[in-house]
Design brief:
About 40% of the residues lie in helices and about 15% in strands. By secondary structure, it is an alpha/beta fold. It has two domains: about 20-265, Aspartate Aminotransferase, domain 2 (3-Layer(aba) Sandwich); about 265-390, Aspartate Aminotransferase, domain 1 (Alpha-Beta Complex), CATH 3.90.1150.10. The chain is globular.
Amino acid sequence: MPPDTTPIYLDHAATTPLCVEARDCLQACLTAPLGNPSSPHGPGQAAAARIATAAGQLSYVIGAQADEIVWTSGATEASNLALRGVAAFAERGDRNRPVRIISCVTEHSATRDTLKALEKQGVEVVWLAVDAQGRIDMEALEAALARPCDLVSLMHVNNETGLVHDLVRIAEVCQTHGVALHVDAAQSLTRLALDVSTTPIALMSMSAHKIGGPPGIGALYVRRRPRIGLTPQIIGGGQQQGRRAGTLPTHQIAAFGAAAAAAEAEREASQTRYRRLGERLWHGLSCINGVTRNHPPAAIGAAPFVNVSVAGVHGEALRTGLAYGQPNIALSGGSACSAARGASSYVLRAMGRSVEAAAASLRLTLGPGIDAAAVDRVVARVAEETTRLRALAGRPA
């Protein structure tokens, strides 16, 4: 019998497999006689009804109103709309100071790169540092807010380590200073409780493919009251109340809504299971000589993240060996965006890890289909590959 080449998939922070509910919804949309959702005829209104259902499903998950949802191509575009939109609107006002935005050095590159581009255009960006766990200093945030500011932009859950920022406290501090808060919720949507009706968040970026939905679709929550000034970044057509033009992809949006509803219904049970499996995975990996933890303790971290550094090996060689060995393991060394650039994790370096430790990191993120047996196979495989690489390098196992 040939060996089983099915990978053990532990890269759910990068993208998740399509859930059954989203798949069925996609198939239904693609086979139905749907029209352009902006059209007044029957097929067009049928498409509009599916989009309205999805807006209701997603807004229910986050405690919003359906008309506060702006559909985008993903969380990256949603964050671009939030950051560029606020900056462009602020620049239109009669003011004697530059636009000023506060963020953090460990943000996802969708935020970091957008803010760096805005800096070149004259926007002042305040970059908050983090401690060894990846937490920002709340006193530093308070100090930064002492000067006039247009926006604070922070992620809820770090996409590499699973560190959970204290969103409620951050939102309250921003509200006290009268500054709008943008939250990157790509890694927390349906994993942690989110309620914008009780937490003063002005803008929030979300993505479908992180929660079992299809790639290519996301959303930006835009609070209706108090209204936030937001200049659209895609124009031409007037869709979505002029906030983001373009014909809406009915099938993707409907599948996003279906995935959000399904994931939210299973949130507590899933998180309990991932937390238990994550502890099992970390315990097993911690028994390997030279393995250190980068993900925070459960009290301040989110399932399903396990992030470790492996001393005495070349990081890329270790990840390649795991990806093409037996069993092969689908994992990453950080965010997919950083991997595409061939760069070591700037998140881990900002947390004080050495360049070597950041380069030799493994990010393993749990999801459906992973059980205790799979976790144990992964631990054994990492131990085996680590021993092999250290032997080739003439280093002790």
